[in-house]
Amino acid sequence: MLLETNRLLLKSYDHTLAEQVFHVVQQQAIAHTLMHLPHPYPRNFVERWITYVKESYEQGTAYELAIFLKETEQYIGNCGLVSVTKAHKKAEIGYFIDVHHWGKGYATEACQEVLAFGFTTLHLNRISGRCMTRNPASRNVLEKIGMTFEGRHRQEFMKNNLYEDIDYLAILANDYFTKR
User: Fold this and answer.
1) 2-128: what fold?
2) How many CB atoms lie within 10 A of CB 135?
3) Where are the alpha helices (DSSP H) in the chain?
4) Domain boundaries of the chain, sorted by first residue
5) Which of 64, 124, 142, 180 could form a disulfide bond with 169, CB atoms 3.0-4.6 angstroms apart?
6) If 0-12 CB within 10 Å is exposed, 13-18 middle and 19+ buried, where does residue 109 land?
7) Residue 8 in contact with residue 109, Cβ under 8 Å?
8) pTM value?
9) How many C-beta atoms surround the C-beta of residue 166 within 10 A?
10) Residue limits of the N-acetyltransferase domain (predicted)?
């Protein structure tokens, strides 16, 4: 699978990307912003994660894509739809970007393309996103792609022995197509 934006290529994962993925996911700042990413990130987890991503894609339960800079073909992160539920036509968007590329709009650009894929190709009705409340940059990405804040779940998740509040946002197909 391949999606393309002005500056990015979003491609299906394969095991040849393992070292590049490890270089990004081992960054402490990334682990600090993601609910399920441990730090330090064990190298052997990368191969298993790529296998899981490929199997999920084949089953149609997730569509996670590797993000590359179009100009240099450098791997800079991940963006995709997870928890795809075809019976209810819904999914959750998720993403991370190499810390060396934060603040350049890449997450927003990738998420916009994945959102379009979800609504126009998969014909989803609802795409949600969530982030730790203490991560306003991630919430900003979700709002930039048109998602509406739906609520905050207080102390919903524990990360590094601390309870985290989680913000929930979403966009419906009707809202997406109306705003285009």
Assistant:
1) Aminopeptidase (3.40.630)
2) 17
3) 18-25, 28-33, 43-59, 106-116, 136-144, 173-179
4) 2-128
5) 142
6) buried
7) yes
8) 0.95
9) 17
10) 24-169
